[in-house]
Amino acid sequence: MDDLLLKALRCEKTHRPPVWLMRQAGRYMKEYRDLKEKYSFLELCRNSELATEITLMPVRRFGPDAAIMFADILLILETFGFSLRFGQDQGPLIDTRNLLADPLSIKPSPVEDSLSYVAQTIKNLKKELKVPLLGFCGAPFTLATYVLEGRSSKDFKLTKQWLYQKPDLFHHLLDLLTEQTILYLKMQIKAGIDAIQIFDSWAGFFPYSEVQQFSLPYLKRIIQALKPSGVPIILFAKGSCAFVEDLAHLNPSAISLDSSGDLLKAIHRISSKISLQGNLDPDLLQAPLPTIRKEVMRLCMGMKDRPGYVFNLGHGIKPHTPLEAVECLIDTVKEVSYL
After folding, report:
1. What per-residue confidence (pLDDT) applies to 261?
2. Would the pLDDT of 7 be above 70?
3. pTM, 2 dp
4. Strands 83-87 and 91-95, bridge-based pairing
5. Apex 245 CA angle, 244 and 248, nearest 5
6. Whether 257 contacts 278, CB under 8 Å
7. Measured between alpha carbons, how far is 180 from 156 in angstroms, rounded to an integer?
8. Residue 148 and residue 36: Cα distance in Å, rounded?
9. pLDDT recorded at residue 96
10. Rounded to an integer, what distance in angstroms lies between the CA atom of residue 64 and that of residue 330?
11. Sequence-ordered list of residues with C-beta below 8 angstroms from that of 234, at least 6 positions apart, any chain
């Protein structure tokens, strides 16, 4: 197996940065859109053969240095008995009336039973791949916002009501989500995952004091629980540039930066023992190819003297991203030389 990514996540010197992209397998690829015309999103996630094929699509097409399994951060919520569906152009819809009626009665089911299809997808992929396979999960705080809002939110009104009016119950919910997430990630590791990324997509939309209290301690628990496995853990948080030092104190293998700050300045704010990933603006992939190439080269060469850089976007690939832009990005990274 080509372990360029794993070397970078150990902060070892590499001849160039490894490259993979968040939402690497998704709506920007026609092959995926063709499948979506036949199957619902959840059907694609739950069918291990289809999830395997979707994961492999960009690997075959572009040759990135890692694959990330096709799944969704919200699948774990079904282990709590919450009904999950994805409405047409509405995003996720979660029925959590049982939680709101009696929060203390929630008892999750074993992840090995409810999410066995994820483990099977991983096993399938390990037979096919010659590059590392990334697993992932949602951070407890981000998962909690979906549970409380019942969907994606712009103002997080219900979450803030719980956070400020029912902090003990909110912590109880975070405890449940954290323990179940640890079990879920251990299942992924047992199935063969080579590295893990934790997505805290919404923590950055809350005040810093609330991030300190309701997000960071639970991320720390997950990292500490998984450390004995030796599997590298990458932390991604939207708005991470504002509290990157706090993320570094959790001692992950890597921090994935969004596009809100300057990557080349961030290297002076955290230990050189922690790998850095990101932070190209996904919207730049709408630019002319020479512009993409120039910015990719600027980031790569700016990180030449900092071992452990993984090239990625500051967020996921957007649906209308041209295939030639993705190809240009990955090919440009592969032309970089640190020798």
Report:
1. 87
2. yes
3. 0.96
4. antiparallel
5. 90
6. yes
7. 23
8. 28
9. 77
10. 7
11. 9, 134, 195, 196, 197, 198, 252, 253, 254, 255, 256, 275, 277, 310
